[in-house]
Amino acid sequence: MDWQALALTLRLATLTTALLLVLSVPVAALCVLGRSRWLGLLEALTTLPLVLPPTVLGFFLLVLLGPRTAFGRGITALLGHPLAFSFSGLVVGSILYSAPFAVQPLVAGFAAVEPALVDAARLLGASPARIVFTLFLPLAKRSLLAAGVLTFLHTVGEFGVVLMLGGDIPGATRTLSILLYNQVENFDYAAANRTVAVLLTLSVGALVAIYAGNRPRGGSRA
Amino acid sequence: MLEFSLEARRGHFHLQCDGRFSSRWTVVFGPSGAGKSTLLRLLAGLDRPDRGHVTFEGEALTDTKRHVHCRLGRRATSLVAQQPALFPHMSVAANIAYGIAALKPAQRAARVDEMLALVEASPLAQRRPGELSGGEAQRVALARALAPLPRLLLLDEPFSALDGEASDAIVSRLQVWLRAHQVQTVLVTHDATDAFASEAEVAILHEGRIATIGPAPTALAAERQRILDRLSGA
Question: Does the pTM exceed 0.90?
């Protein structure tokens, strides 16, 4: 077992999940509470990675963060190294690639909170931030859990963006998915089976956690 | 004094209202679909009119011409709707304290106790909304709306789940409290007895327009006759 790839994958998934949740909560709240017609565009943009081939997204990011664009040169000057082919670059790519998996469950969860409750809070002078912290997050905590788990799993399993943007650098960008690809390419099916077992255990375990949490207590579903 | 001139389209419904409520207790009477809830939402600031203004005690709360729309929470206005909309994950006491978070803890606790006593809900303080009856929930919603000490109180059939006796008792206690705190109240109802019961100024709302404003016996003369005809016919 390549423990380095496992540790890197878990570090990437944890960091991506934490950062993406912090970013997604205000975006989802804006989509639900906002009135501007431009919010449809924002929601569409956060959903775009769902329909975009991962290699296309990876290619865009590779070009954007590379020396061909002013943005990429600016980032390189700021950080002292290019974001492409680095762990930080993978985090940026993963955040964009997994955004729909965090934003969509949160939008659905926040929108399911009764509008009458939001009106009541607004009438009592609650700011949008207070509505998020005192109503949306406590009442939509299952959506928050789903967003976290889906983002984590999606990041663990991502391949196309990682390969395009990060390549295959042990300890920096070689995740379990890249490792599996290498093992299969080398006909090392025994090692590939072990890697698959780890990926499968992570996925099944997390999904069981979500569905167990969503089951009503003490009875069957109505 | 509450003055307004409002125009708003909601699908096929067109509300066009002008009014000046000078009484401390005004009842807006109208059948279902007359636009009562829409009018209250516009007065409360929850919705914006297409055109018009709302002025309370000389201060513009909404004015589309001047692009004024005073933020909710700064309008000193509370609204209690038919649906209590209590926060289900908070206790009754926490619900009532929600709008007075800026007060010091001791003041906040005292205000919550005062409100609970006013609506006779002190024993319910630690209960969750899911454990309350419809009438209890409406009383708690009223307490939550009064806790920030609003200057304008808008009531949208808030006692519909209370029986007649309980409703009368709470209204009379509420009126004493509102007089003491100089709160102007607008109550909307489709029940003529609510309007007759109080010595209120009554406005008749019909198809999105205010048809009459005046003392209950004058404004509700036609409605009174209709009820009498119905009773004599039975």
Answer: no
